[in-house]
Specification:
About 5% of the residues lie in helices and about 50% in strands. It has about 400 residues and is mostly beta strands. β29 and β30 form a beta hairpin. The two termini are about 15 Å apart.
Length: about 400
């Protein structure tokens, strides 16, 4: 999968790096015999990855991802806004739901996007039965503690996770229709991630989703202050601030978050962060001498994509992927430009880097996100052009 993702970055960003926005300018006072350099027409690209057989539709274009999982790429898109509709194939009880819709909006700084789909077959997860539910009618006669003893390690946030449900005594418990619960009940919590179109910039203070907890049986209601759910997030997240149902909680030292629930459904766990970033510029190519041909020209170089961070794995690594996209890599790309006559000149290529300090609770991470590339071509006859390609968090 890593190999596939790497290839997708090369393919998805190729158009972004070769077809620049028309933001160049020239000196009107220059003599008429200078070489005029022009940039091309902007197009966009969207890559979609899935772990199951999936049909992906963008406008009138439809592409299929095979049953083993994989990736499709939509290139040469000319509009700035698109809606991606992904439909998982098969008869399983998929989480998230089989049909997922993701809106993508492009800008001069964002010329491509990667959407990652991680589907879970919830029917394959073993729900834990409560054989002696202490309920008379709809009211508990004593405190009920139900443990879901799943494995503690959560790979890709798509496994049943260890959780404990505590229902206080004298709590009224009903099903989704308001009727009394009868007989043995099943309790399970499955974690999964929702697909998003990644971004490069975080607001100064932001709550961004990291994982969704699907609690079964769906629709179960708890009266009063509700029941207490303790769910495993990951030890590497200990001390982080998370938000569930609009309230803020701290992940404990064992990697669990404990929160109140008044009903069973899908509960989003968002990470609360306070973010500071500074913008830096690195030079990829520094005034390199080139021969300029009349008409089309190409120049090969290497640029950075993605992000790198002090985070080493687990919950916050997955959160970084959800927010910023792919882990960093240095890949070869090609830029193009046109010239009205032949000659010599220089090319300079720089890239923006956002240096983030990300704080959540007592946790601090330092993350670099590679962004927009600027290509400046100057003819020795006096004419120049500057163009930009999209950022690399996408």
């Amino acid at each position: 999968m890593k190999k596939t993702k790497f290839v997708s970055l090369v393919v998805a960003m190729f158009a972004a790096s070769t077809l620049f926005s028309s933001c160049w300018c020239h000196d009107d006072s220059a003599s008429t015999d200078v070489t005029e350099i022009e940039t091309g027409v902007v197009t966009y690209s969207i890559a979609v990855q899935s772990n199951v057989a999936t049909e992906v539709k963008i406008g009138s274009q439809i592409k299929d991802i095979p049953a083993a999982g994989g990736e499709v790429v939509f290139e040469n898109l000319k509009d700035s806004k698109y809606t991606v509709i992904a439909t998982a194939k098969g008869s399983g009880n998929f989480l998230p739901s089989k049909i997922q819709t993701v809106d993508v909006e492009f800008t001069e700084e964002k010329l491509s996007s990667i959407i990652v789909l991680n589907y879970v077959d919830a029917d394959s997860k073993s729900a834990k039965k409560v054989s002696d539910l202490a309920i008379t009618g709809t009211t508990t006669t004593a405190e009920i503690v139900v443990k879901n003893d799943a494995a503690a390690e959560v790979e890709g946030t798509k496994e049943e996770i260890p959780a404990t449900l505590t229902i206080p005594a004298s709590t009224t418990v009903t099903d989704g229709n308001g009727d009394a619960l009868a007989g043995s009940q099943e309790f399970s919590v499955v974690a999964y991630t929702l697909p998003v179109a990644q971004d490069e910039e975080l607001a100064e203070e932001e709550v961004t989703p990291a994982v969704t907890l699907e609690c079964k049986p769906d629709g179960t209601q708890f009266s009063g202050e509700g029941a207490t759910l303790q769910a495993y997030i990951g030890k590497e997240a200990a001390g982080a601030e998370v938000e569930v149902n609009g309230d803020t909680y701290t992940v404990d030292d064992n990697g669990y978050v404990t929160f109140k629930v008044k009903h069973f459904s899908a509960h989003n766990v968002g990470v609360k962060t306070r973010n500071i970033f500074t913008k830096d510029i690195i030079t990829l190519v520094d005034h390199q001498s080139i021969n300029i041909n009349e008409g089309e020209n190409e120049f090969n170089y290497e640029r950075y994509f993605g992000w790198k961070s002090s985070v080493s794995g687990g919950f916050f690594f997955r959160w970084h992927q959800a927010v910023f996209g792919s882990f960093w890599a240095k890949v070869p790309v090609v830029t193009e430009f046109k010239a009205t006559s032949a000659g010599t000149g220089t090319i300079t290529i720089t890239q923006d880097v956002l240096h983030y300090t990300i704080r959540s609770g007592r946790l601090i991470y330092y993350t670099d996100v590679y962004g927009e590339v600027t290509v400046t071509v100057t003819s020795d006859n006096g004419q120049g052009a500057s163009a930009h390609s999209g950022g690399s968090g996408n």
